[in-house]
């Protein structure tokens, strides 16, 4: 009887743990890449210098985005530092005062945005990829709903003028975006905008070059 009871308790505990842990469900629509395919296409960008050489630029404001900066609980974690391809976002001018663009690009085979976590030695570690479309351009193209990826609508990001001490759109014009945390496990879910396992603690650290040999 005791053995049966222990088994029942174990099953219940496992079930509770499963219900509390976000699970990434792969449901790509026709033509959409799987997580494995996205990783295969972007692994080279784990070296940030490769990303820079292929046209990605660091966020002009040099911000490392945290949840509390955008009016969310600090316990939600952070995004990190964004590097983006201006051509893929349709960005043709400096921020005025916000980053704006015209593209409706959503192909995760070559994401428009790469997200890095600053490290203690000043290096950058790739943690996620992202696609972003500016709301005005997306709607001007005849789209009544946000884009989707793997069956999930993109998140809507738009600054609220009533909250002067935070910026819900992190210096971008209103937009829809989708984060995919394929390089740093996110306990909140692979598509959540913030990751408690990402930190901006070392933002601004100076990279130390190895000594000559």
Q: How would you summarize the topology of this molecule?
A:
Layout: H1 2-20, H2 35-42, H3 48-53, E1 57-58, E2 64-66, E3 78-84, H4 86-89, E4 113-118, E5 124-134, H5 135-140, E6 148-149, E7 152-153, E8 155-157, E9 175-180
Antiparallel strand pairs: 1-3, 2-3, 3-4, 4-5, 5-9, 6-7, 8-9
Can you describe what's shown?
- With 213 residues, this protein is α+β, with helices and mostly antiparallel strands.
- It has a domain at 33-180.
- Helix content is 20%, strand content 20%.
- The protein has five helices and nine strands; from the N terminus they run αααβββαββαββββ.
- The chain has helices spanning 2-20, 35-42, 48-53, 86-89, 135-140; strands at 57-58, 64-66, 78-84, 113-118, 124-134, 148-149, 152-153, 155-157, 175-180.
- Strands 1, 2, 3, 4, 5, 8 and 9 form a seven-stranded antiparallel sheet that branches.
- β6 and β7 (152-153) form a beta hairpin.
- Residues 1-23 and 207-213 have low confidence and may be disordered.
Give the N-terminus to C-terminus distance in angstroms: 68 Å
What fraction strand?
A: 15-25%
Low-confidence stretches: 1-23, 207-213
Radius of gyration: 19 Å
Oligomer: single chain
Shape: globular
Short description:
The protein is α+β, with helices and mostly antiparallel strands and 213 residues long. Helices cover 20% and strands 20% of the residues.
What keywords describe this structure?
disordered N terminus; disordered C terminus; 213 residues; seven-stranded antiparallel β-sheet; alpha+beta
């Amino acid at each position: 009887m005791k053995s049966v009871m222990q088994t029942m308790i174990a099953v219940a505990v496992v079930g509770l743990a499963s219900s509390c842990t976000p699970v990434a469900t792969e449901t790509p629509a026709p033509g959409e890449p799987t997580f494995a395919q996205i990783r295969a296409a972007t692994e080279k960008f784990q070296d940030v210098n490769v990303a820079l050489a292929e046209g990605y630029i660091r966020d002009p404001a040099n911000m490392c985005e945290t949840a509390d900066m955008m009016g969310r609980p600090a316990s939600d974690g952070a995004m990190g530092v964004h590097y983006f391809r201006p051509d893929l976002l349709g960005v043709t001018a400096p921020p005025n005062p916000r980053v704006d663009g015209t593209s409706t690009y959503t192909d995760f085979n070559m994401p428009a945005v790469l997200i890095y976590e600053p490290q203690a030695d000043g290096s950058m570690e790739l943690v996620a990829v992202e696609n972003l479309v500016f709301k005005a351009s997306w709607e001007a193209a005849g789209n009544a709903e946000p884009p989707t990826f793997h069956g999930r609508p993109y998140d809507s990001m738009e600054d609220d003028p009533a909250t002067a001490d935070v910026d819900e759109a992190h210096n971008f014009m209103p937009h829809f975006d989708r984060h995919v945390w394929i390089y740093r496990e996110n306990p909140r879910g692979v598509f959540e905008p913030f990751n408690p396992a990402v930190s901006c603690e070392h933002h601004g650290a100076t990279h130390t070059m190895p000594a000559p040999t």
